[in-house]
Amino acid sequence: MINLMTLELKKYKIRKNVFIAWICNMVTIGFVALVYYTANNPKEQAFGSYEELIAVAGTFINVIFIVFAGVLLSKFIIDEYRDKTIYLMFTYPVNRKKLILSKLLIIGIFTFCLTFLSYFFVVFAVYLIFLLTNTTLGEFNTHVLYVLATQAFIGGIVNTMVGLIPLYIAMKKKSVTMTIICSVLIGGILNSNSGGFTLYSIIIIPMCLSLVGALVIYYAIKDIDMKDLNV
Fold it and tell me: What stretches pass through the bilayer (predicted)?
């Protein structure tokens, strides 16, 4: 499995995608700071504590990396189905399930790790901006770090699993456009903010969607050995 993943990473250059994701993080930092500093009065501010800052930053990060997962799905799987190169790979003496699973593991690992790191990167960057401008939201203590680490971990898991839901559409339609549109819709709806409320904040919803993601992965690879190679 490790060898398959290594070969996949050598075949596809994803540095550009990772770079774009970090650019999006930089935009998030600027936007979060802008939202805070342009508020006319404290009551209009999007957040008044570091815990709320984590939630606001997380909203943007979650959307970014759910879409990021969709982009990687398109690159690693849909492009190969569309170009029919996947069928050539299926003729090799390699277990098809392991081949598809290796691709999904790469997508999942990158989505989780980048989500987790992005939470810390964005929050610490905004915190640094606050220090430089003599702004404070209270004490940045171990409790805040605990909340940050917890939200980063949960966000990583949820974004990884939810980000793979478009795989269902991807395997049916073999369309890059449909896959990415599906990712944008899922990320946008789940993290759409209305008066500080998001569907993501209702823990049962991301949990259920994560379960859906797991089921999509299972059914995507369950019968892959039985699929006809004739296209």
Answer: 20-39, 54-78, 99-132, 144-169, 176-193, 199-221
